[in-house]
Amino acid sequence: MLAEVLTQLVTVIVILLPLSIAVFVGRERLAQTRAEWRSRLRTAGPVIVVLLIVLLINRVARQTAPKLSREIGIHLTSTFYNVEGEFILIFQSIQTAETNAYFSTIYVYGYTFLLIFPVIAYFTLSDTRVFRRLLTAYALNYAIGLVLYIFIIAYGPRNLMPAELMERMLYDTNPQYQYLTSEVNSNTNVFPSLHTSLSATVATFAWMTRSAFPKWFPVAVVLAASVAISTMYLGIHWGIDVTAGLLLAALCVSLSDRFVDRWSLAELSEQFGDRIPWGQEHD
Amino acid sequence: MNWNPTPSEDSVSRRSFLAAGAAGAAITTSGCIDRVRSVVNHSTTDQLSLSIATVPADADRQNVQIARRLEERLEKVGIDVALDMRSRSELLEAVLLDHDFDLYVGLHPADYDPDFLYEALHSTYASEAGWQNPFGFTNMAFDTRLEEQRQTDGEDRTEDVKWVLRGLSQEKPFEPICFPDEYRVARADRFDGWEDGRLATRYGYLGLEPADDITRLHALVTNSRMTVNLNPLSSTFRKRGMVIDLLYDSLGTEYEGDVTPWLAESWDLPAESADTSESTHTATVTLRRGCQFHDGELVTADDVAFTYRFLEDTSLGRAPLKSPAPRYQGHVDVIDEITIESDYELTFTVTGGREPFKRALTVPILPAHIWRERVNQHAVSGEFTAPQGRWSVVTDNNVPPVGSGPFQFDTRTEGESLRLRRYDDHFTLRAGVELPEPTLEELRFTVDPGSASSIGRIDDGGADVTASMLGAYSLGAIPDSSTIEQLKSPSRMFYHIGFNVRNSPFSNSHFRRAITQLLDKNAIVEDVFYGNATPTATPVSGDWVPSDLEWDGEDPVTPFVGSNGTLNVKAAKKAFERAGFRYDDNGRLLGGY
What we know:
A: 283 residues; 75% helix; disordered C terminus; B: 593 residues; alpha+beta; five-stranded mixed β-sheet; 23 strands; disordered N terminus
């Protein structure tokens, strides 16, 4: 089941990526990238390593974090529900079979695409700063999200109002996605909505790079907004989670500006090079 | 029959309330605020607030829907309500072990015989952990009748049970809502002999007739608890103990309400019309010879005697206080003494009649050499304490489990799957034993959290049967196809609301009654279960139910205040006022009274 869903997801992304590269990036940048990719990778290397480490920790934490969370976390389901009540049920008014299909697709495929495409797009820019900032922001989103997931235990609306959300619950209409998301997440990890924060992060970067990728900007904004709405429409997140996701995105984008280029590897190796054996090889 | 609450009730509940209050204070000061889930306030000028504990829809969709209905109604009558959502084992921990809740919505495991009400309600269990009186209910008159139904047989016993059911419908330490229909689906072309879908018992997996070349059964479960913990004594990881039934043998096995010899070859029970003036009876049990546990050790009378003693006190007399097992304790309480006559013969001295004794014969027989060793190991590590229901011996995951049952543990992946393989030396496989046997080499249980996706998976041929009871919402999704067989079995389990009667205001039975009148059980059955449940006023069904408590379209004792599913708020508030509560000018129910 999981294999089937994953294959579908990979297929869709593999088809979408070359198409969107052709539309949004253009041949010129690709050609230049072919010439410069080594040096760009070298500059961005440390950031890539950091992101990979964060993702790895996230992966491992999926096993251990729930136990830790049960020990030290605070239960907030009833608080969220008391604060916002049945807010997310306002999406009932736009509920049709088509919107169900749209938001389910966006939640799974749209989101994955939205996250992967900018990584490629920004790598084609000669100046790697945006690329490094994006990866830094991703890493921050995951890292901060993980910490919040440990401290805050809350179930999403679908766990509280199954009857009202019945017809549009992702796992009822498309049970196969359950296998995918249960791989990635536990059902008490709802605050904040990482779908929202990562999508909003991408949209913010799209705005910052709108002169370089003018066509991508509107697409990213529409996709990101759709992802944020889909999390509520499908009953996965509370409005509070989405709000927190937006704030987290803002925080991560601004922190990425501060962190990137703050420490250069050359300086670090100069400073500590004589003490670290492998540091000397770089000279 | 007249219902007279005993005058002693009040003083007892006040005492237990004080005790509970002291315990609550101790927990609060220990610094872990989050564990205190009771939110009741006792101020005379503030609004009464309380919390309803429930499980998320992922675990049980009906459960949370009932909780939300109740929440909405309680708010209408001016009570401030918080929904406390916990995973299944966490909810059971709070209710069964910590007794830290106001009220909860849950599915009671019940049993085939109404004797389960003994452990559910008897005062001696009010402070114990487990399904033994989680409500903290104490009532002398109940105790007497609960004991009497254990002593008597036939008509007399029926009368005692009826008395208890009548009393229950008035006192309401818990309120039964409905018995859900148990539906499962199986592939039609792979196995025969599903035994009317008794997949909650060992009979569901024994005596199956597979089609040619099929040696494995792949079952889906919606809950992962069996992949995490296989301790037969855990009260938070077990419901009806289906897997334990497969891994462990019991002396007798229950089928359609009767218990017949299983690990016991034969028994000699006290006569049906035994003289009830005598307080004890004796029974002899003869074991099958040469049965072995999965580790090769022989099953002897010593293991049997050990099991019953161990369930009574899991510390085996080492702890300063007895530490009864959080499960099965009510079963074994009828046994006064056990004498080992020989390696294969035992004499039981029983304080109850035939039926409760037969029920005691259904507990799993544990290998003495393993469990004695666990208790001893614990003794090595310094001071011996065995907090009842909480200490490691009764909570550890017990992996790999060693029983003598028809299937043995093979492998598991926590949260994902559990694999059992046939125990080839099981006595049911012997020539001349006319009992259903394990016909399959392997049983595989895979966790598939959704009922709807489980049905889809059976339809696709991805598994053979759904072992868990399907959620009512998904029943409409069962495809009408010849490749799928629908298995229906009536349930003894019932959805209910449990009150923590240790604490005010739940110690007030009028308050509890006022709450139960907010529930429209008919509407719950229609809207939440789509008609696939039977509303009830009693926790048992069938001939035990007195005619005046039979369901006749509405609850015969505490009917819903309202009509057509709409609550009559004014009338409902009246009931709270009659219970001694006051409302402020804004229509909010005040905490003190």
